[in-house]
Amino acid sequence: MPEWWTYTLSDFLLFSPRTYYRLIERHNAAVWPAPVLTLALGVTIAALLRRPASLGSRAVAGVLAALWAWVGWAFVYRRYATINWAAVYFALLFAAEALLLAGVAMRGEVRFGWRRGAPGLLGAALFGVSLMVYPIFAPALGRGWSRAEIFGVMPDPTAVATLGLLLATEGSSRWPLLVAPVLWCALSGATLWAMGSAEAWIVLVSAGLAIAVSVARGRRSP
Amino acid sequence: MLDRTATRRTVVRALAGGAAATLLRPLSGLAWPAPAPAPLSRPIPSSGEQIPVVGLGTWITFNVGDDPELRDECADVMRAFFRHGGRVIDSSPMYGSSQEVVGHGLGKLGRRHGVFAADKVWIGSGPDGPEQIEESRGRWGVRRFDLLQVHNLLAWEEHRPRLLEMKAAGRVRYVGITTSEGRRHDEVEQIMATRPIDFVQVSYNVLDREVERRILPLARERGIAVLVNRPFRQGSLTRELERRPLPPLAAELGVATWAQLLLKFIISHPAVTCVIPATTKPAHAAENLGAAAGPLPDEAMRGRMALHVERL
Questions:
Q1: pLDDT tens-place string over residues A165-218
Q2: Which residues of B touch A83 (CB under 8 A)?
Q3: Chain B contact for A6, CB < 8 A?
Q4: Would the CB atoms of A79 and B70 count as touching at under 8 Å?
């Protein structure tokens, strides 16, 4: 790109905040009552991981795979792509993560669970934010409940929740699973930042924490 | 007496009520001529065809996807635009769903004929250009584009000859190039100086005036029409200025909002053919067309306007 230094984030923003928030509102209405179901799935994941077990961990990976596939198809590809031509490529990111998680569900090489220590607490906190705090942002910021972003329905809380689960999990086999949520958080964070949306901080901090903790763990590993 | 602190809303109400004077003449004195319905127009140098000096841009504002409510709002903007004499609408395949939304509005309003359809080719591969143009034409729902521009000079060496072939075959009427935010002006100048083009599109406003140095004089010298984008810096300029009172010269120019004053600054440059502000509000579309009426600032007033805004 010539003269790339003259571009700012806002030069890449193709739509207005109003259009984006209405997109969320229309999606929520179209998929209702799916948000209730996906929130219930989130609570089930949290409960399953209280006692790390192979079967529970595989079930969690399977549920996450299904949610990444659905969010990527129903929101990113079918809806977001109507205002952002690049969303077609973003949807591939969701498909890739869904496939990776499906593989984990079948092979069981990643053992999800709430580990002790700072990374575990951090991961649990991010998961909690995505499940319980994220839906409140829209009404708290004056956009109303109809535009609430729900885990398993919208990409941001889904990505943040996945990062939380992966932060709380040990083992190098989870590393490939971090790529798509970190990339999505960076992309979405940049978009939200250009829109002047407060949620930008959540996704950017989540991606930053995931990278920092992973690097720190990698250094400690022999 | 004009209320210098009037908001865009109050002015637009006045415009909607038919209170706007619409005849424009160069400013040699300040007596008002009799009103006339059509906005000021300027000739396209390569043909002499007249087009209104205020058009409609679609960057961001018309990218509303398949949202029926927002699509109808955009159609309302187009309705107000046409009602006040507007003709030139500019879009691009880079603008998301904007082309489809323009097509929706044209169909709803029955205005596929009469609009001056300006679009762009925006693809890195020259051979793929015609296919993209055909897709764009389908989205607009027009028989042919009036103007096709190479968007931000992307693969311009490959696209320009094909666009000229289309022009020779009668499949487009004018050919141009675009840039924005002051990028690649050296290359723009080189193309303007050495290749036959009908239009050049650049960013120009009361604060971003770099094009006055070479590009605008070159356009006059070479007989190239000039479309102006980003007249309000994507709205940031009007948002900032609307908190402040209008300068006294606003009354002399018969404008009552900053938006109209900023547009008058642009269209008063003799090289400018048409400015293409974007908006989501029908009232603002009408207000913008209102700038194509009444007296225009002369060179001395333009200098005062720029100085005033720079000091704010």
A1: 998 887 767 789 999 999 999 999 999 999 999 889 999 998 998 889 888 876
A2: 63-65, 96-97
A3: yes
A4: no
In a domain, B301, yes or no: yes
Q: Indicate whether this complex's ipTM tops 0.85.
A: yes
> For residue B65, which residues of chain A lie inside 8 Å, CB to CB?
15, 19, 23, 79, 82-83
Quick check: is B46 in a domain?
yes
Domain, as residue range, for B58: 39-311
pLDDT, tens digit only, all 312 positions of chain B: 333 334 454 444 444 444 333 334 444 434 444 444 689 999 999 999 999 999 999 999 999 999 999 999 999 999 999 999 999 999 999 999 999 999 999 999 999 999 999 999 999 999 999 999 999 999 999 999 999 999 999 999 999 999 999 999 999 999 999 998 878 899 999 999 999 999 999 999 999 999 999 999 999 999 999 999 999 998 889 999 989 999 989 999 999 899 999 999 999 999 999 999 999 999 999 999 999 999 999 999 999 999 999 988
Q: Looking at the DSSP assignment, which residues form a beta bridge with residue B50?
A: B43
Beta bridge partners of B227: B201, B274
Q: Is A174 helix (H, G, I), strand (E, B) or coil?
A: helix
**CA dihedral over A104, A110, A116, A117, signed as positive or negative:** negative
Q: What is the 3-state secondary structure (H, E, C) of B91-131?
A: CCCCCCCHHHHHHHHHHHHCCCCCCEEEEEECCCCHHHHHH
CATH number for the domain that contains residue B215: 3.20.20.100
In a domain, B27, yes or no: no
Nearest to A14 among B67, B95, B234 (CB): B95
Task: Find chain A residues with C-beta within 8 A of B60's C-beta.
Answer: 13-16
3-state secondary structure of B203: strand
| Domain membership flag for residue B61 | yes
Nearest-CB residue to B63 (from A2, A6, A15)? A15
Q: How far is A129 from chain B (nearest CA, A)?
A: 30
Chain B residue with Cα closest to A195: B60
A142/B contact by beta carbon, under 8 A? no
CB B204 within 8 A of CB B231: yes
Overall number of domains in chain B: 1
